Amino acid sequence: MSDREGLGEFEHIIILALLRLGDDAYGMRVRQEIEQRAGRETSIGAVYSTLDRLETKGLVESFTGEATAERGGRAKRIFKATSKGIHALERSQQALMNMMEGLTWKA
Amino acid sequence: MESLIHFLLGPQLAEEILGDLEEESLLRGSNWRRRQLLLSVLPLLGLRLRHFHIEERILLASGLFLLPVRAIDLLWAFVLSQVPLKVDLIRPTDHLLFTLALALACAFVCSLYRQGMGIWLGVAALIALGTIPAQLPLWYWLLLPALCFAVVKAVDSRRRTS
Question: Taking CB atoms and an 8 Å cutoff, what residues of chain A touch B42?
Answer without folding.
Answer: 45
